[in-house]
Amino acid sequence: MKIVLQVIGGIGKSVMATAVCKAIQTQYPGCKIIVITGYPDVFIGNPWVYKTVMEHELAYFYREHYMDQPDTQFFMLDPYLSNAFIRREGHLIKVWCEMNGIKYNGELPEIYLNHKEKTSFSTLFRFPKPIFLIQPFGGTPNQTDKYSWPRDLPYNVAQNVVNAYAATHTVVQICRRDQHILQHVVPVEVEFRALCVLIAMSQKRLLIDSCGQHIAAALGLPSVVCWIANVPSQFGYDMHTNIVANPPTQQPELRNAILSMYNTMGFEKEFPYANEEEIFDIAPILAGLGHDAAQPVGNGQPVKQRLTNPAPAANKKSPKKKR
């Protein structure tokens, strides 16, 4: 029996799909799962997956996986458009399973790294101090506005957390070339499998709702994850310390809201705070990381719970890609 699972979306959604694959195998032991995805590297070594197919490479798909194969099943609907997900009635993985008639048993994402990947990629991240990993910004490449308030950490919050750990850790920022780079960090842009090894090597992690937090969950690594527009009950994991943004202080303009309150691209007119400083208090973030907020930061100044200075200017130099 073949089951075709289509993943429409970003890399984090493909990581979540690994949990769906395991749930499918639990219900249909020995079935051959074919995953249509834009991120096949997520499924390398996964024992539940028979084959991955790139979403733009579907030539002869009908002949190979459907013609004269009446028992093939197709799970190709997007859970984002389901009534249960829109109404926030459960985690995306649970909704995804149940909309296809699959019983959800609490399966979590899984990533499988082989010995050679671990030993080879780890040589890229040999630093003199323990690794503090931060992913403050996410989104799609080459966004017009590099900061998206419903998803990203405010600059000052992210920078002050970095300052708090710069003396004791090598602070590594997961980033792309088109994103802002914080001060006192080592910017890293690597391919997916190497990124998984980096996350596995890190001692502490501060993440947003982006690929990093899904990878950390797939590797069983508790992390601190900050949330603004999205909610951990739909996209997060209980193993993490999930910190939800402060309630809005302003009435947002929602004339363009359709299936969710805010667009994660960060439309200015939807901004529901007086300024970015109202979104998070830094003290709970530091507490979640195990840091005493009363202790001095890397430059010898105490951490500010409410920040009044403008965010530091972004480093205009493109980070060098680790090889």
Mind explaining what this structure looks like?
- This protein is an alpha/beta fold.
- The chain folds into two domains: about 1-100, no CATH class; about 115-290, 3-Layer(aba) Sandwich (Rossmann fold), CATH 3.40.50.
- The protein is about 25% helix and about 15% strand.
- The protein contains ten helices and ten strands.
- It has helices at about 10-25, 60-65, 85, 90-100, 115-120, 155-165, 190-200, 210-220, 230-235, 280-290; strands spanning about 1-5, 30-35, 50-55, 75, 130-135, 170-175, 185-190, 205-210, 225, 240-245.
- The protein has a six-stranded parallel sheet, with helices on both faces. It has a four-stranded parallel sheet with strand order 3-2-1-4, with helices on one face.
- The protein is globular, with a radius of gyration of 21 Å.
